[in-house]
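Thread: "does anyone have the structure for this chain?"

Original post by V.I.:
We have the sequence but no experimental structure in hand. Need at least a predicted one for the grant figures.
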Amino acid sequence: MKMKKNKIRVISAVVSAIMLASSASVFAKFDAYNDSDGFTLGHYEVEVNQEQRADTEKLYEQRPKNERQFENLSRGLVAVLGENGTLVSWRFLGTDSNSLTYNLYCSGEKLNDKPITTTNFFHTGASKNAEYTLKEVENGEETGVEYTTTAWDKNYIGFKVTEREGYNIDDGAVADLDGDGEYEILLRRVPSMDVNTRTSYPVIEAYKTDGTHMWTIDIGPNEINEVDINFLAYDMDGDGKAEVIMRSFEGTTDGKGNTTGDTNGDGITDYSKSESNLTIFKDRQYIVSTPEFLSIYDGETGEETDRTDLKPSKEPLSDWSYRYSDTGRLTKRASHYLFGLAYLDGVTPSVVMVRGAWDNVRAAAWHIEDGKFKEDWVHNTENKDDVNSIWGACNHNLVTVDVDFDGKDEILSGPMAIDHDGSEMYAVKVYDNDGNAQKLAHGDAFDVAKTDPDFNGYMTWACHETSQLMANIEYHDARTGEVQWGYSKNKDTGRSRSADIDPTHKGFEVWGSTATIPANISGENIADTWNGFKFRKLDGTVDSDATIPMNFKVYWDGDLLSELLDGTTVSKYNWEDKSIDVLMTADDCASNSGTKAVPCISADLFGDWREEIVWKTADEKEIRIYSTSIPTSYKLNTLMHDSYYRASVAVQNNHYNQPPNLSYYLGAETTKVPMFEGYVIKDGKKITNPDLTGSHGTYDINAKTGALSVKLAVDCANAYVGNNIVQIDTENSDVTPIIVDDRTLVPVRFIAESLGMDVGYNDSTRTVTLSGNGYKVNMTLDKSEYTINDIPFEMDVPAQVVNDRMLIPLRVIAESIGKKVEWDADNRLIYIGSVQFYDKANAAKYAAALKNGKEEDQEIIETPVPTEEPDLLATADYTEYTDSNNVAWKMYINEDYEKYNIGDKLEWAGTKKPGELANIAVAQGTNGKVMHFEDSTKGNRNAIYNLPYKMNGTVRIELDWKVGECTGGQSYGELRFADSSKNTFFALKTQKGAELQYSANGGIANGLLETDWKDVGTGFNKDTVYNVVIEADFDKKVCNATISDGSKKAKIIDLPFENATDFNAMEVLAVRVEKNFTWATDIDNMKVGIKAN
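Reply from O.Q.:
Generated one for you, tokens below.
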């Protein structure tokens, strides 16, 4: 394991305080240390229990056959406009034979010469809105079954949602609501939820993908916390049409206009009207008591068809926490809801409700019988003090999957698991070096997946909110709950992600927030940094110091690795260059859940097995569904016919969305995957997989892997394949790229095979065939004509034999197989790759390495001797000033902003974290020009001005500050003054309805100041212009301040500060705590100087 430094053989007091006595059954070691990253407190490791691992393999081998019913989906034919053509793709259904092939027609013309064996075809040079027909072929003959579609004119389709003033589009779901074999879209839409001002209520809407509105369910007045309005859409009764299951209330109106009335006879149907029945927090609000139900709605009409009392019940409130007794926090803990879709008996789908997260955790389950709810079980967690209890061990999300291979699903949520019968399986624990157990707690994110190609068991990578655990981010066995390794962190670790993003390491990679360096599944780092990656945009510009995105993942391009989805951008980890390369950005779209930055939903909605992404537009008026236009050679069943994947898609709208995983390992090493088990009902008949002859089987997915890029040099026999230098032809060192008639020719077989293509040669016709990744290219020696997917093209220099090897023009091979190409004439270098990247800065190094056959040893650079920093203040201009106390000052800055143009930003700039204020500019004030700052976005934002020099001794700062009123509950704004190391020595704070406050100490650009705030004085608040004078003595470490509005004055005397050594920076910081946040503030007449000797 890496990161063993600065070791301290002491566990922190906080860790020790929450230890619970228990005897560890395995060897565990916690290695405590303080890492320089500022977050990591130690490393936890357990010797892997080989007996348990062997038991898991045995259970997997003995697992029963999956007898579940799946959705009867159509072929899902889709044609997506891409670069230089259109990608046509379709579903390989679980009930299809692997021998099924296809013919594809465009406007009546057949595009393929032989039946297509994969599930996509790239039509080069296709016109927009082309008409395609796909025909099924069996034994070389068309069966008469065919499907049609019209090509998209862009890489997405979209539709406008119904107009609702002030509503946001939130998370969603997909389901076949009307039984036509195609998915419909369900959306949660939320207006302003402020219980004091709202005029409308949240709704769930259903749409067909062409924009046809199907129905609306109005939640009504009795749910005022938008985070908990989740729902489940799935065919629960096997009739071919999905039901929608969700919580409902008195006042809920179904899709047919039927409203639930006064069910308990108390004469009340709006429980939000009573102030005593409300509890309001900074970030959310709750109704303390209201009747709660679970309802079934017809998927096609939205009509309520059954209703039952919601379980587990909220009552009594006192059961929901042992830490708190106040109604507000008890209500919050009882008002956390998660839905799950689980096959608890292995055959019938059930809906699971898990309630609670931070303290008490309870659950209940029902299946649907004759259209009515039938209770399966109710689980109550009783023993809060038991280290083995799931009390306090639940996430903001859950998955349902058969981790013990008995054919029945378990319910997993971060550090806990509930068995199919409602009994507790485990709470995840770690052990100190003396064998005492510590239970891990609630978290925001986790992945449960088959992460190891050599192991059939599920593993969990999860993060945890409570700081200073022995494992705040950890890797554990999903069947046993046994942690294998992890890291202790000093803060809430709010992000974690697991996916195969690097084929040079076996299995998945794992990474997360709080400085968690990406690692392989054994815990070995795959990089030297957590935040030093390059982020390469579509235009080729590069940002440095990036982290690998961890909010979401998606299968998007043509390989078996996961791509990274964050906000409205799809990117790929470039393991050769240690960078993140952008593949696609959804312009004019927006993500949900603030910094979680997730789409409305992402799933394999149509076409081949790659996933679609559903985003809203930034104006909240439209839905867009994006699909890839990149071909692939891999052939996989639609992911929606994988039971675990489908169940995970069904619950994506739970709190913090998590990406779905599969019931099998899918990564760079995958060559075969399990055959589809289960069945669908079609035309009243049970349809199964015709290739499955026993209980289980596998099929070949056309797997072939290749490098991300190839670099060659003209007249050089060596080449880079990825990061490795190899000889182009080990039998013939004369085979090199050459230039003929000003055209660069390259060896076709070497490049194609290096990039994962198959190469065939017909000696009688002298024809070379390249196939793979959705492309088939035919070219003939000494002829200029060639074909890409049977479409004819012509090259300007014919294919030819040189030194007994076939060479073709550079751009022909690159563009024929969908790769990017760069030609560097200065260094005579060639780059061919999957992403548009050519490292020009290192071109000379690459050229030399190829010439020599190896890279040079790294040059040792001596550390330069630091030189003394020049004293810029000594030569700066100043004016003399004597204050009212007859103290003389040298004033170096005297700024009234009159000489600048409106809109000038000057030297003010935001930081990467928390982010820059939306508006920083010189503006016209009441009495002249001012420096104006304004924002109303989500999250914290700032602007910093760095002085051109450091000011020591005693410093005087004077300015006029138009404070401006903050809206958004307890959101606030600050004006901070700091030294060259960003240590704050004085700060002022304003907040809606609160007095102006001041403090000392803390940091700059780092969020909250952990310090005591004091009121400046009565009446100093809101939209007032104050004259602020600060005198900071950096020798004595004290600060005096005078704040005046012309009629009243407040003095702050000898306020001590600690770390600051000079004055060098000012910060304007906006902190958004609640919704509807706005703040506008001005600075004017800024004067800065030092006391004259």
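V.I.: this helps a lot. Residues 50-61 form the longest helix (12 residues).
O.Q.: and Residues 1-26, 858-867 have pLDDT under 50 and may be disordered.
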